[in-house]
Amino acid sequence: xxxxxxxxxxxxxxxxxxxxxxxxxxxxxxxxxxxxxxxxxxxxxxxxxxxxxxxxxxxxxxxxxxxxxxxxxxxxxxxxxxxxxxxxxxxxxxxxxxxxxxxxxxxxxxxxxxxxxxxxxxxxxxxxxxxxxxxxxxxxxxxxxxxxxxxxxxxxxxxxxxxxxxxxxxxxxxxxxxxxxxxxxxxxxxxxxxxxxxxxxxxxxxxxxx
Length: 210
Prior knowledge:
Layout: H1 9-15, H2 32-35, H3 53-68, H4 72-84, H5 89-98, H6 101-107, H7 114-122, E1 126-128, E2 131-132, E3 145-148, H8 157-169, E4 175-178, E5 183-186, H9 201-208
Antiparallel strand pairs: 1-2, 1-3, 3-5, 4-5
Helix pairs in contact: 3-9, 4-5, 5-9, 6-7
């Protein structure tokens, strides 16, 4: 499967905003946007270029893909699923992306970034409703319970670091974390006003509707 292997901070600089791809680093003055808020490369600081309507829509889609770590084919599949669901297509799309297991492991406080969460899920560190699940793209349902699978993980350094991140930044109100039992529950689906990621989903809908 295709995989992005270049410097992660280049993506934030390209979009000109924080995509929160590197966990705690994104909240410090080490963040690339804090130091150089322009695209990388020799032409990164050029200004005055006006984007076309299509380019604006395309960049919004690329931004969403980068935030959630999803490639084009899978992203199109999520959009098709969102169209078939009741409600607003754009909001359905964001909700599906949020309910991915790797994203929820991050949101629930088991990992400080989505990239690290995806790595942990793939290596079988988590159970969903008591069963091992190593599929990062698995879509959680309301009431699903995510828990650590191995006892040794409960004393691991990465979990301690993740919980320290939670203590500083908290968890979303639609999830419930029990640090004593090392389990978390998706108590409800997030509404649009609860999703604070800098994404204009309507531009994505317009792009795919052409």
